[in-house]
Design a protein that fits this description.
four-stranded antiparallel β-sheet, 13 strands, 32% helix, globular, 31% strand, alpha/beta, Formyltetrahydrofolate deformylase, seven-stranded mixed β-sheet, 280 residues, one-carbon metabolism, binds ligand LMY7XDAE
């Protein structure tokens, strides 16, 4: 028996859970974990089922007609296959090094299929990328379209399923952001919706806040407006300079991004309009 994940969403109505679990039973499946949520606000139903079954592809075929009858958005994935992940980074490499380490320690079930930076390899002061190909994709306002074409080619060639902006400080065009909808996660170094845009720690210092934070969100054409997946905060004091806030912020960004990538790679994250559903 192999382990599989079924993730689905559809307009809510009676009988969805019974239909799904009934088919799993009829197909010889054994549920090992299940979560569901009905959002009364959007009237959308969300469900994640982990199950063991002898023939996953056969179940996928059998599930297709049921999914059509409920007009579901759904997918079934081999639970033991790591999520192919491409990481984009600019000058600050603390989130990249953290993702590499957590992956090496099997905390994250991802396969890092490439690293893209708009800065050259020697600007990334990480000696060991654990075999992940490095791609230098410099960009200026004049070359943004060509640079994004190169990024699209690397996404296609690497078979990346998830794109992570791990402190990548370039704004993706509306077209690229739209084409990566639901599979591109950014770590923003503030507790959104506060302090959007560049230099949020300086904004925080200027405002005199007593907490700072970080936000992992899906990337959309609207800067820092995408559906939020995970957030974290930490108390600060009047004595913290902007540089001290930047230093304190690094560990918050690392843990919040890792939490979002882990949840995504385990099919626990669902887009729900401008919001998300995230199953623990
Ligand atoms: N389409 C989107 N692209 C990106 C998003 C997003 O939400 N939607 N998030 C950013 C990350 N980010 C904050 O988290 C951010 C990055 C860059 C800037 C910015 O003003 N960049 C300037 C250039 C800065 C430089 O060259 O150092 C620019 O691109 O003109 C603001 C916020 C990643 N992309």
């Amino acid at each position: 028996m192999l382990s599989w994940i079924l993730a689905l969403s559809c307009d809510d109505r009676p009988g969805i859970v019974a239909a799904v679990t009934g088919l799993l039973r009829d197909q010889g499946g054994n549920i090992t974990e299940a979560q569901q949520f009905n959002d009364a606000h959007s009237d959308r139903f969300f469900m994640r089922v982990a199950f063991d079954i002898a023939d996953g592809p056969a179940f996928r075929n059998a599930f297709t007609s049921l999914a059509e009858s409920f007009t579901m958005d759904w997918h079934i994935r081999d639970a033991d296959r790591p999520t192919r992940t491409l990481i984009l980074v600019s000058k600050f490499d603390h989130c990249l090094v953290d993702l590499l380490y957590r992956t090496r320690m099997n905390e994250l079930d991802i396969d890092i299929v490439g690293i893209i930076s708009n800065h050259p390899r020697d600007a990334i002061r990480i000696s060991n990328l654990h075999g992940a190909p490095f791609h230098h994709c410099p960009v200026t306002k004049e070359t943004r379209a060509d640079q994004e074409a190169a990024i699209r080619q690397i996404i296609d060639d690497s078979g990346a399923e998830l794109i992570v902006l791990a402190r990548y400080m370039q704004i993706l065009s509306d077209g690229l952001a739209r084409d990566l909808a639901g599979r591109c996660i950014n770590i923003h170094h503030s507790f959104l919706p506060g302090f959007k845009g560049a230099r949020p720690y300086h904004q925080a210092h200027r405002r005199g806040v007593k907490m700072i934070g970080a936000t992992a969100h899906f990337v959309t054409p609207d800067l820092d407006e995408g559906p939020i997946i995970a957030q974290g905060v930490e108390a600060i004091s009047h004595a913290d300079t902007p540089d001290r806030l930047i230093a304190k912020g690094r560990s918050i960004e690392q843990r919040v991004l890792a939490r979002a990538v882990k949840a995504y790679s385990e099919d626990r994250v669902f887009m729900n309009g401008q919001r998300t559903v995230v199953f623990d």
